[in-house]
Amino acid sequence: MPKQILSFNVNGDKVDVLVPPYLTLLDALRDEVELTGPKEGCGTGDCGACTVHLDGKPVASCLVLALQARGRSVRTIEGLGTSTTLHPLQDAFVRHGVPQCGFCIPGVLMAAAALLEEHPAPSQEQIRYGIAGNLCRCTGYTKMVAAIEEAAGMMKQGGSAR
Amino acid sequence: MILPSSVEECVKTLASRGAVAKTVAGGTDLLPQMKNGVVKPAVVIDLSGIAAMRGVAAANGAGLRIGACATARELELNADVLRRYTALADGAALVGSVQVRNLATVGGNLCNAAPSADMAPPLMALEAEAVIASSRGERRVPLATFFQGVRRTVLATDELLVAIVVPAPAPGSGGSYIRHTPRRELDIAVVGVASQVTVQNGRCVKARIALASVAPTPVHATAAERALEGQTLTPERIEEAAGLAVEAAKPISDQRGSAEFRRHLVRVLTRRTLTSALARASA
Question: What is the CATH number of domain B173-282?
Fold first, then answer.
């Protein structure tokens, strides 16, 4: 099948890649754009490990055909913070010791970041609902909820989480 | 992949290649089916470029015109839907997870025609119609006759579901959709029930009840509907209707629940949705 051009914006940069029409957005990001933060867990939209923001909204990138992202903006975990300046959520996750195996964390952070954009001061219930599409098989949910709650408080004060 | 920018362009493509093509909107049902080889389309037609198929708007006259590509998330958060079409808001909010609802569309939920589709019973209870386009013209089909079987609808290979039109509920109306699932999120209804009632001067003037996951297609519980109309909706009447709703269910036993358990759930969820619909109608 002939490849087609995918021009889109990834983490603020304009990106052009050639992709076959059946390639998922997740595979395009990992294999063509070389951003391996988004993970493939189930490949069927059930686990949330592949969560990225598409035009600002969290989506399961394993369920999006790459070419459907033409002309749109994608944000991955690589665009959330930098290695020197962590996003308040990342900082809170580190301090709370949330990551165990770490596989689900990029997806959880992107779901949490989207949640805080919509609800800057979420209740515990809203936090649990906001990350309900993300499976953590180490079952680190309790620490996730605490970290997200703390990060929300820090962001409200306008500072980093530290 | 083909990216039409209008309904006209899309139906022209479907007229020539519809038999080997699949339209994709959110892709949340289609992609897993393509990945496991259930469907192998030679051509994929991406509907995301068709502006006329997006969004939720007031319909001509009254009611809502919901573009087939409106997402579950849009419906779940839409102020009109939350105020007057509450059963639909309930159903939309239960689809997948937020990551799935930002992609999954109402048109996809209906065209995939799973017996468990969470947006189908609410739209049937609201007496919605499917607006279907092809190069032969446009036709409208009530959702009650849209589904033909498991994963089968009335759509011919050259036809496209463009929008869903929902008449405005009369004053004094309320609706509710509740499903039973072992897990609260990212699960598939063992049984789902939508109820929509209109109460005027203390009497029920209209009742619509639709069931998911109890037959090859979503079905109306017509005997229960008839038993409620003209009556005062007392707990006893509601219980009686819940019993009648079970008659409309022809469930199978599978890994998600036995036929007997499903019949029990129809009774319980019909009672609960009618009670909730009545409370919302009086609110």
Answer: 3.30.390.50
